Amino acid sequence: MDQKSLSLFCHLANSLHFGKTSEAMHVSPSTLSRVVQRLEDEVGATLFDRDNRSVTLTAEGRVFLTYAEQSLQSWASLQQAMQTPEVEARGSISLFCSVTAVHGVLSPVLAALRQQYPNIELQLHTGDQAEAVERVAEGQMDVAIAVRPTQLSKRLNFDVLTYSPLQFIAPSIPCAVREQVGNVEENDLRQQNSEWWSTLPFILQERGVVKDRSVAWLKGYGVKPNVSAQVSGNEAIVSMVALGLGVAVVPRLVLEDSIHADQVNVISADIDNQALAIGVVSRVEDSGKPVISAFLKSAKGTGVDGTR
């Protein structure tokens, strides 16, 4: 029962899709099917119920998943413990993050990585941070800079680098939305009636932790947002608010790095007194790889604390 087979099983147990796992783990569907069959033969039980439409874990499959995850984690810990200082980290590492994270979080990490590990080649991909955790979990990326999700798979590690509160913003330029908002400040929000809230055009993220937290915060006011647009990426949302197209909730880190920061007003500096944790996502099974360890060491040593 080799580590590769256990990795394939764990991925399939989370994706529940042979095609997605085959693509992400770079094996053919027939190879994946043979691996699953071999594992089932070895443990003497059916691990997946599958037909032409769906794949689900059996009760025995859930028990085996716990074993597989623990086995992979133990193997990664052993690799890391056996690694000697003389082993020089070299090779490539793929990383995914948002454009904001490149400037606000990643820059000092890359500087430290380049100085300490000059033989590591970085393959950087940028996009919506809401996709970051999923891309690592599915094996498309080695690591990612991301917001910590509400629930984190046991197959993933999350190392916090910084924190960022969520801020409720509105346009500062003369426009209809600014007139609707008026001179309301944070302490006045609970005094606003339902009519005031219902007139505000909200720009929401398409998905992700920030959207979920925004909706939950508004629900605390008894408000169902009047959604005028759903946008992929917090940077674009700040731009839309600056243009007078609506109000929104965005991480402070995004606003600080935005060229439109002086074109919006912050109504609430911390919507729910619970800052977002931003850090590095990696797979547990990769913990013992020298390039992953080197990247995590560089990231943890940058001293980013999110207090600026």
Describe the structure.
This protein has helices at residues 3-15, 18-25, 29-43, 59-82, 99-116, 132-137, 176-181, 194-199, 209-220, 234-242, 252-256, 290-300, and strands spanning 48-50, 55-57, 91-97, 120-126, 143-147, 156-164, 166-171, 201-205, 226-231, 248-251, 264-268, 276-283. Helix content is 43%, strand content 22%. The model has no long low-confidence stretch (mean pLDDT 85). The chain has 308 residues and is of the alpha/beta class. The chain contains 12 helices and 12 strands. The chain has 3 domains: 3-82, Orthogonal Bundle (Arc Repressor Mutant, subunit A), CATH 1.10.10; 91-157 and 283-300, Periplasmic binding protein-like II (D-Maltodextrin-Binding Protein, domain 2, 3-Layer(aba) Sandwich); 166-268, 3-Layer(aba) Sandwich (D-Maltodextrin-Binding Protein, domain 2), CATH 3.40.190. It has a 5-stranded mixed sheet.
**What characteristic shape results from the CA principal axes?**
globular
Instruction: Indicate how many domains the architecture comprises.
Output: 3
Provide the spatial order of strands within the biggest beta sheet: 4-3-5-12-6
What's the N-to-C terminus distance?
Answer: 49 Å
User: What's the CATH class label of the largest domain?
Assistant: Alpha Beta
Query: How many strand units?
Result: 12
Figure out the total of helices. 12
Under CATH, the homologous superfamily of the largest domain reads: Periplasmic binding protein-like II
Low-pLDDT runs? none
> What's the main sheet like?
5 strands, mixed
